[in-house]
Write a structure and sequence with these properties.
heterodimer, A: alpha+beta, Neuraminidase, 2 domains, B: Neuraminidase, globular
Chain lengths: 735, 374
């Protein structure tokens, strides 16, 4: 343990990595380069739901920037304001179309409904002489009825939406033509002097057209309804899978009807604003609108197959189309070439967006794990005859087995005052063995997640770290309750890491505070190896205060903190870091409070749990050995990244977890003795050990038994004995 | 390099699942895994250290190469053993000569002949291109007395074969020399570790296994310059090949290809460092035996779960003997899978209806009756 002696500097923050001797500048730069993780930022950013419309939004921004640069008249306030009024009208229709598409349908009749409502509005206030406000109400009602015609046919007559709305498109257009034929003279130009009417046509709030303000309100409402209300969820569910929605008890027909009625209503609203702005009706209003709207909505990234989309995406699509049209108009290009070019841009954008939608998850998955450089000191020789303190022996070979074949994955073991043995299993149980030879097995508690670290508090409650769930307490009668499942969020990280993802091991200080490690905040229990491949400081030390019930992160940015042990001095904790093969010491109270130093490093294997021994030393479990090939791979992050991508996980190079041992180390950080099971026949992947009454109990994450060996002494070992052993091994360790 | 990686990333994103990569065929059809190798009785009682090749002598005793010597096992259950000859290098392939002598391939020395009186003579140790023959891997004697042999590599020999794999060498040769000895004539050069050969039953062609190319190639004797591939992309590294009595061949596959090794072979920076700083026993490599040491690299599927290593675990070492038809298709096979230890089969030869198998990784010579193979 030479390195630990030289590098025994204490600091407030944990040393992020193993530092081996003086480093040349080139190596430092290489390490820094690998510490930065742009791919990780990318992955975490695009994992956010609000990044879904990234490509449509990028296109919209590109359109705005392009026209702002090339066309001087585009970026003027007047133009933008006048555009926003037109934009609002098309956006209403787009939102209506979007809702129908999210519900799994399509509405081709939006253009006709828009035109018809425009006509109805104008007829009502001219020929009908209806006051403006009631006329608006009636027009909206008319829109709803038109929509319900579509919806009724689609939902209750089970007609195909495409054909149905194609037919209603023609019918509504026919009605519009008929009305236009009879009333063309009255509606060609309309003069109404009504403040409400004028407000609808030209009214501005803080310089922004009233129609646009209304649009914002509709968007907000639409967003809340779609994403927060029961109806919205039903619409999405029906669109995603109609059969599953029906099986879930959703009234599919009604939901479909409602979504078409929404479309009708929004078309009517658009028609009203159009009527008020232009005060002119003709049979041609809204002709071909459905194609524009459809393009906009698809461009916004709303899936044609339903179940996916937001009102914002509809708006982004509408804005892109509308600004594109406006910009082209201003550029005065009749040039078909440019239009074709833009059409190609649209196709590319839509293609990219579809790819994006399909592959986003995969892309995130591919870049989520970001290996970095992990350096180790020279591998201590463990081979027989090497004379090193870690020399392999077969002291675990004759371990008695408890519950062989009856437990699966006892990560940690603990004994209560009556000498009963507790261990967690991968089924989510805590199993208790008692009686002579521990032959009596019972299920003590069923918590749900895989129980990892165990420990008794002063009231004989069993405190448990449960993988994927958090910190739990099990009362002596077997009832469990949650102590904590979240801690403070790290605001500098994109990912929300407030939930406890992998609480791993715990210990309780003499003051009653529960300290536990969260091995990694980025990966789930089943993916622990990914954290190893990554080798980044993703874990943290967390404290739970039973008095106040508060959870606080004490030390963040630790590389896989695994075992936690309250040191014999009562003021510090030992933190075993698996992938760095070292133990940290952290002072939680006393004069050195808050300081961290490396207690021991460069173990020949990966550390797991750590516990106090009865004679003032510590037991440390090594769950695997460092193989030279893996050590080399840890120095080569790009190699690990490629390996992860190219070959399946069962073929990956893993830490050598079939061979482990138990090491006893002194309070001064010296290796006292080791217990090996060469070949790992009975005890592969040793993750824990617990000393109790002259016996050592051994648990393993992948094992099917708990082992027990008698320690070669009666009571607690005397200090003299311990120091004698220390003396004999010291020359080999400090060299 | 980062630019190319970025480009690959974009390409992967746009067209996922469309990357070309080597694919190792699954063990399927005639190569479907079984435990037949583990079920066989050993032919002898005490273990034979690393038997490399085995032939049945005319008197019913077994001639086995083991380490640097040629052993004769005889008596009931081959209880008696005697050293016929000792050499300066590792002894490998054996072929019986008509007059009671045997040809023995000795690493670093060339092709040797041990006469009936146990005198050792060098048959050939250099080829006509001036390069010494240091890595003889297989030998076959034709009826007309011509001796054909494969030379695995000009650079490495014996236990260093794995270096030849890691360096992706193509330094092997196919040679011919008269029985009386002399310089060997190079029939083919630039082969990727030819590891065994045999004559077709009509003696009109040679069948050569090329280990690093995972294939079997047929060289017609009439036109040796135009070889034809009879089986490509084997799931393992083919080793010695011997004729089967009713047509076809016995192929000893001394290790299986794993995706990890295939991947590592493409990562030259890793391979170079690994070869420089790590002992060969602990490389990521195919091996003839598993040392069951924590210093060996471990693959994900090899983790001992609930006390068991899964038989499907990616094999560092494996035992496989395949019965290959003349067109290269596997008809049947004997396996020793993960968790067992009859691995690293270097030879399988049929004599009458007896099949003798040298499992070098398991320190065993196994015997099977061919009738039981069906």
């Amino acid at each position: 343990m030479t390195a630990s002696v030289t590098s025994r500097r204490s600091a407030r923050r944990p040393p992020e990595r193993n530092v081996i001797g003086p480093q040349p500048i080139g190596k430092r730069i290489r390490e820094l380069r690998h510490r930065a993780a742009p791919q990780q930022v990318f992955a975490e950013l695009f994992e956010k739901r609000w990044m879904e419309p990234a490509i449509p939004l990028a296109l919209l921004i590109a359109v705005i920037v392009f026209f702002s640069v090339t066309t001087p008249a585009f970026a003027t306030p007047e133009n933008l304001l006048s555009s926003s009024a037109e934009l609002a009208e098309i956006a209403f229709v787009c939102v209506g179309m979007a809702i129908v598409m999210i519900s799994g349908g399509i509405d081709l009749s939006v253009g006709s409904m828009f035109g018809l409502c425009n006509m109805i509005m104008l007829l009502l206030i001219t020929i009908g002489g209806v006051p403006v406000l009631p006329a608006i109400g009636v027009t909206l009602l008319a829109g709803a009825i038109l929509g319900s015609v579509n919806g009724g046919i689609v939902a209750y007559l089970k007609a195909r939406p495409f054909l149905t709305t194609l037919v209603t498109l023609i019918i509504f257009r026919g009605v519009l033509n008929l009305l236009d034929l009879n009333f063309a003279a009255q509606t060609a130009t309309v003069f109404v002097t009504d403040p409400v009417w004028e407000w609808f046509g030209t009214g501005k709030v803080a310089g922004i057209p009233f129609s646009f303000i209304t649009l914002l309100v509709v968007l907000l409402l639409g967003h809340v309804v779609l994403s927060r209300s029961r109806l919205g969820w039903h619409i999405t569910a029906v669109g995603a899978s109609r059969r599953a929605a029906r099986h879930a008890g959703i009234r599919v027909e009604r939901v479909l009807l409602v979504s078409y009625v929404f479309a009708g209503l929004l078309c009517a609203l658009a028609g009203i604003f159009y009527a008020a702005r232009l005060s002119s009706a003709s049979a041609r209003v809204g002709e071909g609108l459905e194609l524009n709207v459809l393009t906009a909505v698809i461009l916004g990234g709303i899936s044609l197959s339903g179940g996916k989309g937001t009102v914002w995406r509809a708006f982004i699509g509408a804005a892109t189309i509308s600004l594109l049209g406006k910009g082209l108009l201003l550029m005065n290009v009749g040039g078909e070439t440019l239009q074709t070019a833009l059409a190609i841009v649209l196709i590319v954008a839509v293609g990219l967006d579809i790819k994006w939608g399909k592959n986003r998850g995969k892309a995130i998955q591919k870049v989520y794990v970001n290996p970095t450089v992990v350096e180790y000191g020279p591998l201590p020789d463990v081979r027989q005859g090497s004379g090193s303190p870690f020399e392999i022996n077969d002291r675990l070979r004759d371990a008695e087995s408890i519950g062989a074949g009856e437990v699966e994955g006892p990560e940690d073991v603990v004994l209560d005052r009556q000498g009963r043995l507790y261990c967690g299993t991968r089924q989510g149980w805590i199993v208790r063995f008692s009686g002579e030879g521990f032959r009596h097995k019972e299920i003590f508690a069923r918590i749900g997640g895989h129980p990892l670290g165990l420990g008794f508090d002063s009231d004989e409650n069993l405190i448990v770290c449960v993988g994927g769930m958090g910190l739990y307490a099990v009362a002596p009668d077997g009832t469990h309750r949650k102590l904590s499942d979240e801690t403070g969020r790290t605001w500098t990280r994109l990912r929300d890491d407030s939930r406890l993802r992998m609480a791993d091991d715990l210990d309780i200080t003499p003051g009653g505070q529960i300290y536990f490690s969260e091995a990694t905040t980025r990966f789930d229990m089943a993916d622990w190896v990914l954290d190893g491949v990554e080798g980044r400081p993703n874990g943290r030390l967390v404290r739970y205060d039973p008095a106040t019930g508060q959870t606080r992160t004490v030390v963040r940015d630790l590389v896989f903190p695994n075992g936690i042990c309250s040191a014999h001095d009562g003021e510090s904790l030992l933190i075993a870091q698996t992938w760095l093969c070292r133990i940290l010491r952290y002072w939680h109270s006393g004069p050195r409070q808050g300081r961290i130093e490396v207690f021991m490093d460069n173990f020949p294997g990966y550390l797991d749990n750590i516990n106090r021994s009865s004679d003032g030393a510590y037991w440390v479990a090594l769950n695997g050995m460092r193989s030279p090939a893996y050590d080399l791979a840890m120095r080569m992050p790009t190699f690990r990244r490629r390996m992860m991508k190219r070959i399946p996980r069962d073929e990956w190079l893993y830490p050598s977890m079939n061979h482990g041992c138990v090491v006893k180390v002194s309070d001064e950080g010296e290796v006292l003795e080791t217990f090996w099971d060469p070949g790992g026949e009975a005890h592969a992947t040793i993750t824990s050990m617990r000393e109790h009454d002259g016996y050592l109990y051994i648990g393993g994450l992948e094992n099917n038994r708990v082992g027990r060996i008698k320690l070669d002494r009666g009571g607690p070992r005397t200090g003299a004995d311990g120091s004698a052993r220390t003396a004999s091994t010291t020359p080999a360790t400090v060299s | 390099m980062p630019g190319r990686e970025a480009l690959n990333l974009v390409r992967e994103f746009l067209f996922p699942g469309r990357h070309r990569g080597s694919s190792i065929p699954p063990l399927d059809g005639g190569l479907t895994p079984n435990d037949r190798l583990d079920e066989l009785e050993p032919a002898h009682e005490a273990p034979v250290q690393e038997p490399d090749d085995v032939v049945l002598d005319a008197d019913g005793s077994l001639l086995v190469t083991s380490g640097r010597s040629l052993l004769r096992l005889s008596g009931p259950r081959f209880r008696d053993r005697s050293v016929v000859a000792s050499f300066d290098g590792e002894a490998g392939a054996i072929a019986r000569d008509g007059d009671g002598g045997v040809f023995v391939c000795v690493a670093g020395a060339g092709l040797l002949r041990v006469g009936p009186d146990a005198t050792t003579t060098v048959v050939t140790d250099v080829a006509d291109d001036g390069q010494p023959v240091q890595c003889p891997t297989g030998v076959a004697v034709a009826g007309d007395g011509t001796v054909y042999l494969t030379d695995g590599s000009k650079r490495h020999h014996g236990g260093d074969w794995v270096r030849d794999l890691m360096e992706l060498n193509a330094l092997g040769r196919l040679l011919r020399c008269p029985r009386s000895g002399g310089r060997a004539q190079v029939l083919a050069d630039g082969l990727r570790y030819p590891s065994g050969l045999c004559l077709s039953p009509e003696e009109d062609a040679l069948v050569v296994s090329e280990a690093w190319a995972h294939r079997l190639v047929r060289y017609p004797l009439a036109d040796i310059r135009s070889p034809e591939q009879i089986r490509a992309n084997l799931p393992g590294y083919p080793g010695r090949i011997a004729p089967a009595a009713d047509g076809g061949y016995w192929l000893a596959v001394f290790a299986l290809r794993t995706q990890l090794v295939e991947f590592v072979l493409t990562q030259r920076d890793y391979v170079e460092q690994m070869m420089r700083i790590i002992e060969p026993d602990y490389w990521i490599r195919p091996a003839l035996r598993t040392l069951n040491s924590g210093l060996e690299p471990l693959q994900g599927g090899q983790i001992r779960k609930l006390g068991v290593i899964k038989p499907w675990a990616p094999p560092r070492s494996y035992g496989l003997v395949a019965r290959i038809e003349e067109d290269g298709h596997a008809q049947s096979s004997l396996h020793s899978r993960g968790g067992a230890n009859r691995h690293g089969v270097t030879s399988a030869r049929q004599f009458g209806d007896r099949l003798l198998i040298a499992a070098r990784g398991g320190d065993l010579v196994l015997e099977s009756t061919v009738g039981g193979m069906r």
